[in-house]
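Input record (one chain):
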Amino acid sequence: MLFTESARPVPVSPGTGASGHALEATAGRRCHDAVAPLHSCVYFAPEQQDELAALGLERGPMAYYAGRAAPLGAVDAGTVTATFYNFDHRHVRRYIPAAWRIAAPEAVLAARLRGADRTLRRLLGTEAVASKEMAEAAELALRAAEAGHREARPLYSANADLPVPGEPHLALWHAATLLREHRGDGHLAALAIAGLSGLQALVLHNATGRAPTSAVFMQTRGWSAAQWAAARDRLRERGLLDEAGDLTESGAALRGEAEAFTDHLDAAPYDHLGPAATARLTELAGGFTAALRTAGAFPAALFGKG
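The corresponding structure, as predicted from the sequence alone:
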């Protein structure tokens, strides 16, 4: 089933678009893939945890929930579960709203920006942070991010209300956050239309071998091994996973179609930027992301099937 512009599924051959051609990443998705790690690197780095712990927040889930949800204000656990999509609600309730009794969202926002500053300086180095390429990438990413749609995008919209940091590397981090949450908010709609619960989406993503391990997903999102196994069984019943837990042709097709629908929902920033500028941002951000990977920003042991 392919997600069309009207959001109504229409039958097509597995793994193909309506034209019969294999689904391919759009220029916007390629740009997003280059930019998003500039935001997400903070989740694997000690600096943001250190900054949030200095406020009194517990390291781990409490720091993560507070850091990502802070733009929304002092929201309750239900709002976090709804907007984050693939976290066990009982796990969220252990930390939210307790986090706000320890540190106000405004203090958390300042701490996460300090953490991003320290992380990027350590991983990229002083020369890259101060480079003209960094300033150019920030300008392009901000221009793309300003064209995002606020409707039905709570995390993007909340972050879009925050001031743009003055330093280029932090402006780029802010723009990367906006672009990441814009695509993410849209992706949740695609997952819901595909009939995938938050946990099922994680299991299907893990089956690609390019996502965090099942142990990482369960630890960070609060799912038990029994819940994970039940979700995997349900995906087998739907024909999306085989007995070994690998993606079937139908599973791969569903993932591809959900990504294609997400591309459609996420097109506005890159349409606004235009093809040449989108390609330039992809080039610049891709260089910085490659440097992050070389510096060990994304530990290999945390990724892979299993």
